[in-house]
Design a protein that fits this description.
By secondary structure, the protein is an alpha+beta fold. It has one domain. Helices cover 30% and strands 16% of the residues. It is built from four helices and five strands, in the order βββααββαα. The chain has a three-stranded antiparallel beta sheet with strand order 1-2-3. The protein has a two-stranded antiparallel sheet with strand order 4-5. α1 runs antiparallel to α2. The radius of gyration is 15 Å and the shape is globular. It starts with a strand and ends with a helix.
């Protein structure tokens, strides 16, 4: 899958770049910051056409995620998995994004929901 851009809440200008490789965010910022970041040349070449950047961000604005189903963490999704430690519920993404703005290495430990099988262990 790779990277998806997740809008943390419909009424907030705050986004996470979420990597399915590391099961964690790799960037946090506003829409304008993401446009600037995604428009930066990679290795001297255009990384993604401007139309594609706008389409991905528009999809995140409309649905909650730039990804297509079944991988999208859209408005109806329970939330992304975080580093095999649990699920970060959708309604807690804003709080985690705020932590990341203050400290990009912040951990979401207390915000995570354990996996189902972990809840039933003694």
């Amino acid at each position: 899958m790779g990277i998806q851009i997740i809008k943390v809440a419909p009424d907030q200008d705050l986004y996470l770049e979420w990597s399915s490789v590391v099961d964690a965010p790799t960037r946090v910022g506003t829409r304008a910051e993401f446009v600037a970041y995604l428009n930066e040349p990679r290795r001297g070449e255009e990384w993604m056409p401007a139309e594609q950047i706008e389409a991905r961000l528009r999809r995140a604005d409309e649905t909650g995620s730039s990804a297509y189903r079944p991988f999208a963490v859209d408005w109806n999704h329970t939330g992304p998995m975080y580093q095999q430690q649990g699920t970060l519920p959708r309604h807690r993404l804003t709080e985690y994004a705020q932590r990341l703005l203050a400290d990009i290495d912040a951990e979401p430990g207390d915000l995570l929901e354990p996996f189902e099988d972990e809840r039933t262990r003694p």
